[in-house]
Amino acid sequence: MEGGFINLIEDGGVKKRILQEGQGEMPIDGSRCKILFKGTLDDGTIFDSSLDKERPYKVRIGNEILIKGFDIALKSMKVGEKAELKITPNYGYGNEGDQYKNVPKNANLTYEIELLNFKDGKKQKWELTIEEKQQEAMNKRTKGTALFKQQNYKEAQKIYKKALSYCTLTTAEGNELKASLQLNLSICSYQLEQYKDSIDYAKKALDLKTNQQQKLKALYRKALANIKTNELDEALADLKDALKIDSTNSAVIEELSKVKQLLKGTKMKEKEIYSKLFQQQLYDESEIEPKEIEIKDAKSECSSLCDPNEKIEEENQTKPTDENLEVQKLKTDNNDNCRIISEEQAPV
């Protein structure tokens, strides 16, 4: 092997010679590394470098920004190691080169590199493939479930929400994972007494139209939250729909019985309230007020007959006859009536 170089890949496209031994573990895909390096061409021209220890170059393995040879070499190094690399065009800048770094086409590259330190790191969400996101969502769901079993509902809720943000797969498998997380969020919200949120998450699970078992769970979760918000008719409808999916489900049957009893009690109370209200409206004597006798009108009707100042002209007086006696009697009776009415209306 040339000058102590070893092949890091079978075709010899990446070779390494250790200049200073390192120690400890080696970085892997996703690891964040701090390095010092200098890159030269075959004629010794430096095309790239970062040798400032105060401000080392930071890279992450596998982010497709580094050339392939650089990634391969870093995964073979230990912290503190210094090495010299020889990289062929296939693992460098290829047949296009790099005009910004003045690297010509099909150029062989030589690097001196030192790995200062590294730490394992995961890819950013936007760097993950759809399949990797699906796997990350499942991993977070497992973590959330462990927290839920510890009755740490608030933290479990946070993890489930993060898991849901990774769900981009639109296949049947992807929708089932989404529905599973929505159902978990529904029960977390229920335990945290966030009943409206619990209902909303259950509805979202139903909207995904996945398997019947998940639909059953969503209806059940929604019914429980509706009971807490006193939406008993909604809860009854949810439980009846759940029973159509599984008529032997004991939890659904038990809650259905409870809701029916609650509705029965509610209707009995409403009946009592309306009955009392109806009776009060029938027998409330305060609404029946006696009509007052209007003194003004009574006086008006008798004024011509009861006026004490009225004078009877003498020239109209004649000898009493039977007819005149009847008229006189009528006047006397009217005067007596007016006196009686006036006495009844007088203040006590």
From TrEMBL:
- Reactions accelerated catalytically: [protein]-peptidylproline (omega=180) = [protein]-peptidylproline (omega=0)
Q: What SMART domains does this protein map onto?
A: TPR
Please list where the region (Disordered) is annotated. Answer: 304-331
Ranges of compositional bias, category Basic and acidic residues: 308-331
Which EC number(s) does UniProt give? 5.2.1.8
- What domain of life does the native source organism fall in? Eukaryota
All copies of the PPIase FKBP-type domain together span: 30-119
Arranged from A to Z, the UniProt key words for this protein are:
Isomerase, Rotamase, TPR repeat
State the TPR repeat positions: 216-249
State if Isomerase is listed as a keyword.
Answer: yes
Recorded GO molecular functions are:
peptidyl-prolyl cis-trans isomerase activity
The cross-references to PANTHER family, in alphabetical order and at most eight, read:
PEPTIDYLPROLYL ISOMERASE
What protein name does the entry list? peptidylprolyl isomerase
Upper taxonomic lineage: Eukaryota, Sar, Alveolata, Ciliophora, Intramacronucleata
